[in-house]
Amino acid sequence: MKRIGDGTGTRLGLITLAVILTTLFLVIPLAGIFYQAFAEGLAPFWQNLTSNFTREAIGLTLLIALMTVPVNLIFGIFLAWLVTRFTFPGRRILQTLIDIPFAVSPVVAGLLYLLLYGRTGWLGSILSEQDVQLMFAWPGMVLVTIFVTCPFVARELIPLMQAQGSAEEEAGVTLGASGWMLFRRITLPNIRWALVYGVILTNARAIGEFGAVSVVSGSIRGETINLPLQVELLYQDYNTVGAFTSAALLAALAIVTLMIKALLEWHTHRREKTA
Amino acid sequence: MSTRSARVLPGFSLSLGVTLLFVSLILLLPMTSLIGQLSTLSWSQYWAAITDPRLIASYKVTLLAALAASLFNALFGLLMAWVLARYTFPGKRILDALMDLPFALPTAVAGITLATLYSRNGAVGSLLDPLGIEVAYTWLGIALAMAFTSVPFVVRTVQPVLEDLPAQADEAALTLGASNLYAFRRVILPHIWPAVVTGTGLSFARSLGEFGAVIFIAGNMPYRTEVVSLMMATRLEEYDYAGAAAIASLVMLVSLLLLLAINLWQGRFYRRLHGGRH
Description:
- Chain B: This is Sulfate transport system permease protein CysT.
- Chain B: It comes from Kushneria pakistanensis.
- The complex is a heterodimer.
- Chain A is mainly α.
- Chain A has a single domain, classed as Orthogonal Bundle (MetI-like fold).
- Chain A is built from 13 helices and no strands.
- Chain B contains 14 helices and no strands.
- Chain B is globular and about 70 Å long.
- At the A-B interface, helix 1, helix 3, helix 4, helix 5 and helix 7 of A face helix 1, helix 3, helix 4, helix 5 and helix 6 of B.
C-alpha cells in the first residue's frame, strides 16, 4: 500500500537527518561522559571509582532509591486503583494534584520541605525540640525524592487500567473473589509490565535527582552527598576526571535503564501480536 | 468506563485512605509551610521580592531559553516520531531507545557533559568558536541544556498517534493525486497537531523549571545567564527563606496554570478522538 513519505528520496533523507541530529544532540554528549572519565587512563578512573568518597555516595544513592521505590510503588497502585475503578467527587483534582511534582521545578520541591522541616518551619521546630533533624540529613533527601518521583508509577498505570476497564475484576467479584485475590490474580498480571516500567522510571529518577536533593542536603561530606551531588562538587573543584567518573557510573545505570525499557517494550509488543 | 457498577469492586475506602494520607503528608503538608512563610510578608514586601530587577532579568532569560528549547523540540520531536513510526531500518531500535536517554540520565550528568563539550575549548565549542557562536555561558547554552532534558516529550506524545493512523487515509490522498507534502499537510497534520502542541507544552513546562542541567552551562552571571530556579536556590543559600518562598509561589502558580491548560487541552482532544466510539 502506498503511504505518504514512502518515496526513496524522502525516506532516506529523513532517516539520515534523524540519525545525524540524534548523534549530534544525544550520542556525542553521552560518549563525552565516558571519554572524559577515561581521559587520563584507566588508573585515575579506578582510583576515583573505588575511593571512600565515591563509596559513601553510592551507598547514600542506593539507600534513597531503596526507600523511595517501595513507597511510591504502593502509593501508585492504590492511587491508580482508586481513580480508575471508582468515580467520586474530586477525582480530577486528585489527578491534577499528583501531577504537581511533575510540573514544578525540583528546587521548589526542596524548598517546600526546607520550609516545613527546617529550623524555622512549624513542624521542624517541634521536631528539633525532640532532637530530630530531617533537613541537611539523609531522611530529608529521601522525603524530597519521594515527593519528586511520586507521579511515575501512577502515570504508567492509570492509562492502562483505564483502557482495560474493570469488567474482568467485576466478574471476579461475582465469582466471590476477595479483594486481595482479585488484585493478585486479575489486576496484577494485567498491569505487570506497566508496573515494572513505572518502577524503573521511579528508580532512575531517584538515583539521579539533583535539584530537590541539593536544596535539603547541606552538602556534608561523607553524610549527605549522593552521586549526583558528588558530580557537582568534584566538577566545581575542577576535578574533571573525578566528576566524570561518577557521571560515567550514573550514565552506565541510565543505559541499563534504557535497555530494560526497550526489552519490556519488545516483550509487550510481541505479546500483543500473538494475542 | 462504567460508572454506576464501579462501586461493586472492593477497596474503595482502603485505597482512598492510603491515597489521601500520602497526598496530605507528602504533597499538601509541605505546601502549608509555603503559605505560612508567605504570610510573614506584607503585600509590598512580596511585590518587591518578585520584582527585583535581577530576578526580572532571570524571568526573561528563562522564558526565552525555554521557548527556544521547546520550539526546537517540536521540530526535532516531530521528525523523530515520524521516522520511528513510519520507517523500518537497521538500528531503529537503538535510535528509539536513545530518545529516552534524557529522562534516564541524571540532569547533573547531562549538565557537566554539555558544559564540557560546548565550552570554548571543548570538542564542539572549539568548532563553533571560529564561527562566532558562543554557547557556554550564554542563553543559547541554557536553551541547549533545556532542549536536551526535554527531548522525550514531543517524540513520545506524537509517535503513538502516528502509529495509530490508518494507512487508508494516506492511500486515499495519494490516489487522488495529492503531492506528498500536500497530503502530509492536509491528512496527517490535522491528526497529530494536538499531540504536537501537548508535547511542546510539556517540554516548555519542564524547561521552565530545569535546574541541574542548566546551572553548569549557564555560567550564572547576574542579569545575564541566571535562571529562575537558580535564583530560588541562591535566596535559600542566603537564608532569605521569605524571598525564596515568594519566587516559588509565582513559579508554582505558572506551572500549575500551564499544567491545567495542557490537561484541559489533552482532555478535549482525547474526547474528540475517542468520543464517538463508545
